[in-house]
Specification:
With about 130 residues, the chain is α+β, with helices and mostly antiparallel strands. It has one domain (about 10-130). The chain has helices at about 10-60, 80-85; strands at about 65-70, 75-80, 110-120, 120-125. The chain has a four-stranded antiparallel sheet. A hairpin with a 2-residue loop joins strand 1 and strand 2. The radius of gyration is 26 Å and the shape is elongated. The termini are far apart. The model has no long low-confidence stretch (mean pLDDT about 90).
């Protein structure tokens, strides 16, 4: 009787085909989960920027000299950028002087932030439709 060692070509090819089917089935789910995680990280950064904008408005209330219309109401406000929040120390980007968007690693430093006063409270408006 002949001793048989190893696998036949058919056995190896069948294992490769099964593994390929599993990878093809799992890839879209992994990509979808990854996209959701990046969007959630982006929304967390937007929330952080809104809080930083409120702190900026509280410390710089005298600079709210412009008028803005938000939801059909007019408020005293100021248009600033994320860069102003970073240089003022209201946001720490953790990697120097650039806050990056986790979805595509682009800079968020020029993103517009509107800080405004409604009554005695301060609010922030940032255009981020993904996070509403």
């Amino acid at each position: 009787m002949k001793n048989k060692f190893g696998f036949t070509l058919i056995e190896v090819l069948s294992v490769i085909v099964v593994l390929a089917v599993i990878v093809l089935a799992a890839t879209p789910a992994v990509i979808s989960i990854s996209k959701k995680i990046r969007t959630n990280m982006y929304c967390s950064k937007i929330s952080m920027l809104k809080e930083a904008g409120v702190m900026y408005a509280q410390e710089n209330a005298s600079l709210l000299t412009e008028t803005c219309t938000i939801n059909s109401n007019t408020y005293s406000c100021k248009n600033i950028t994320v860069r102003i929040l970073i240089t003022g120390g209201f946001v720490d980007p953790n990697d120097g002087a650039n806050l990056t968007d986790p979805r595509d690693n682009s800079s968020m430093n020029n993103k517009a932030v509107i800080v405004y006063q409604k009554g005695t409270r301060y609010y922030t408006a940032i255009n981020a439709t993904e996070c509403n």
